[in-house]
Amino acid sequence: MSANPVSIVPMKDGGFLLNFADNADVLQVDDRLTEKWHKNMQTHTAGYSGCRLSINKQETKIALSGRNDLQLLTITGTKLHDIAHEAWPHFQGSNCVFTEDDQYLLFVLPAASAGNDDQVHLLRLSDYTIVAAATIPESFQTYRYTLIATPENDIFFLEAAAGQDGVLLYQVKIDGGKLELKALPQCSDKVFGSFSPEGKKFVMAPHYDGDLCVFSFPEMTQIIAVSEALVLESPSDYTTAEDEDSLNFIVFFLNELYLLVFTRFGRLLVIDSNTLRASGELLPENTEIMAYDSAGRPTENLKDIVDFGGDIIELLLTPGKQLMLTHNSGQLRLYELPEAFR
């Protein structure tokens, strides 16, 4: 299918809910990316603050977190509740996440003015009352947030990204309708990847020039860390005169044995989860990595190569163990993985 979505939300039937930057539609597609329905939700991406889509486990409600408001709707688009708030600055914003039991919605709201800080809020869904809030220190107009569900139903991660200035990770715990916010300094300046299928560990990519790391969960202790240079140390055809490849913030478990990392050149490296060393490389059908000269033109002359670039923009692993990617042609694509990586 065409168009690169802002949000891709898997559903139980193998399909997905999608929303986009250039219109207010939410689109449902099946497991072959064929449209089932779409509906205008009267919201949109504005000022580079993406409207981010979430769904509850029961697939009866969706939440749309936009630049100026948060909307709660039924799965068919009937509005249940909305919360207006101060506009997020450019490139900032937050998603929402429903609790497993569908009792609460967790989200972040921006500070109203200088001297205040952003806050994590807990909304009780039975009566749409905010029952708890926790302040994020020194956060005024600083971060783009991502709330992440964990294998523990009452624990969530909050990733706070400040562009090139760094990334912080917090633990958010719901305890008797109250919120506890705890910084995880051992995970600072790293980008969350995914949990392992068994839920006992999680992987993080380096923000810039750091280590690829695996941590235990829920202990949050580092199990292994390997430098970016060693992760990328493998036979490669991508020699270049001026630049080197690097990890590109995206990493996730394929299964308990293997990880997949995305590099700046557009490579998909298969990584042994025990050693964090490359053991192979995937090249999805009808994708390519091009060599470029100093003028930015494609070249096949080895002496003129200064950089490489691929045509994959984003990628994720679906619950059905398929590789989904957004392509620079504007297409959303699904690929079957080799049996060893499922």
Task: Tell me about this structure.
This protein is mostly beta strands and 342 residues long. It has two domains: 41-188, Methylamine Dehydrogenase, Chain H (7 Propeller), CATH 2.130.10; 193-310, no CATH class. It is built from one helix and 29 strands. The chain has one helix at 228-231; strands at 7-10, 16-19, 25-29, 35-40, 52-55, 61-65, 69-74, 79-84, 96-98, 104-109, 119-124, 129-135, 144-149, 155-161, 167-175, 178-183, 190-195, 201-206, 211-216, 222-227, 247-253, 258-263, 268-272, 278-282, 289-292, 307-310, 312-317, 322-327, 332-336. The protein has a four-stranded antiparallel sheet, with no helix packed on it. A four-stranded antiparallel sheet has the order 5-6-7-8, with no helix packed on it. A hairpin with a 4-residue loop joins β27 (312-317) and β28. It is globular, with a radius of gyration of 20 Å.
